[in-house]
Amino acid sequence: GHGLKDPDTAIGQCTTKPRTVEAKLDAVKRAILEAL
């Protein structure tokens, strides 16, 4: 599978560290765009 239903698998396959952002749309958008 792709790991979307199992967060531990998804995180384990991720090539970057998980990042905590404020729970606001602008903060999430900014974090995504900065990672590109």
Short overview:
By secondary structure, the chain is an all-alpha fold. It is built from 2 helices and no strands.
Task: Tell me the layout of helices and strands.
Blueprint: H1 7-13, H2 25-35
Characterization of this structure:
The protein has 36 residues and is mainly alpha-helical. It has one domain. It is built from two helices and no strands. The longest helix has 11 residues.
Q: What class do helices, strands and sheet pairing give?
A: mainly alpha
Number of domains: 1
Biggest sheet statistics: none
Q: Percent of residues in beta strands?
A: under 5%
Question: Which tags fit this structure?
Answer:
mainly alpha, 50% helix, 2 helices, 36 residues, elongated
